[in-house]
Amino acid sequence: MEFRLTLPDNVAKLIAVLEKAGYEAYAVGGCVRDALLGRVPQDWDITTSATPEQVKALFRHTVDTGIAHGTVTVLLNRQGFEVTTYRIDGKYEDCRHPKEVTFTRSLSEDLKRRDFTVNAMAYNEKTGLVDLFGGCEDLQKGVIRAVGDPSERFREDALRIFRAIRFAAQLGFTIEAETERAMQAFAENLQAVSAERIREELTKLLGSDHPEELIRASETGLTAYWLPEMDVMLATAQENIHHIYDVGRHTVAGIRALHASAVYQNADRHTRTVLDYTMLLHDCAKPQCKTYYEDGSAHFKGHGKASAKLAHTILRRLKFDNETIDLAVKLIANHDSRLKLKGRAIDHAVRCDMYKIGAENIALLYAIQRADAYAQAPEYLEGSLLMIGEMEEACREILAKGQCVSLKTLAVKGADLIAAGYEPGPQLGETLEALLEDVLEFPEHNTKEYLLAAAAKRRDGQQA
User: Fold this and answer.
1) What is the per-residue pLDDT for 98?
2) The pTM is what?
3) Of 101, 160, 262, 393, which alpha carbon lies 20 to 30 A from 213's?
């Protein structure tokens, strides 16, 4: 069967320039795969028989992005394209990078070093599709299969093991049996891969249409070295009337429910990542918090705070930035705040939540709580959603009334207390926090007159 793809104008132009100069050039890898699937490729990569120096001589604007491995970025109309010389990889000594690469004039030699058949296809308008390893058939069957000997592919580059799961999650594919057996056999080599690369693959998996592939990652042994907590979560039954899944499967169901929410779908990439990892880790400490009532049912008291602490450790392990860690940990610590009302007025509880995580993040908290509810026993869903809806309504009223939910909107500042006789220092900060606690419960107290009087009374009491 002949396949014809429509290449973007800049890609076609780049290939034409190389061909006119006497070189071979093809679009290659993921862009060809996605185009054949009817998906819009995020990037278009080019492979060529020209050396990096020959490529640079043909184009005015280039960047040496990976010249030691044959890659030059060519800039056309303010768009960058990675152009890589056909190459043969040398011996892999660190389960990740070849010790050296050798340039070749053979497209087939270049394609045979690639990871999976669906990524080992090349295309140009003159030759059409070059598919030497059955990648197109595997696309039609929905299969991820290693090029050649899967043991050799994974021995070369351990990250490919995780990439197989990630591609299965993104494409909704299965993994060919021999390839999966080799993944299990070489999973321990993932210990040699950097945290940053593991994080990149895990983030793509979590954000995919099939985050349930995380379960396969555990069953294949992939999570044992970078996310062993998931293995324990999958082995922890919840054993109470509010749950139908173990902790791990509840987590995966929560991620799927989260993806269906308007908050998630309208979020930018960074916010989606925060939400994905919040949902992944919101119950991560449940196994260590599990105890039993006299009737034999399980409970997990204090798991929100414990999960926030453990999540901080995990996110550090994955080398996340402080901003991402801080927000995810706050959301995790407060993800079950709706269960802690215990007679408190809803508006008071909501103001406290807005203070703890920031008013600008409150919609994220409710998205997490709603997804959490969808992943629990269905007979309790309606009541949970009703409660979350009431909290959202209270939040809207608080914002509409401009009520104080942070020190920034407190009617007195540190300078006001100093002018009233307070000394700078810890006592000043403690007094501001105490005044804010008062205002969170009684928003009508947020006046300068009331708060200065309350501060004076507090100071006099401390001095007595």
Assistant:
1) 58
2) 0.91
3) 262
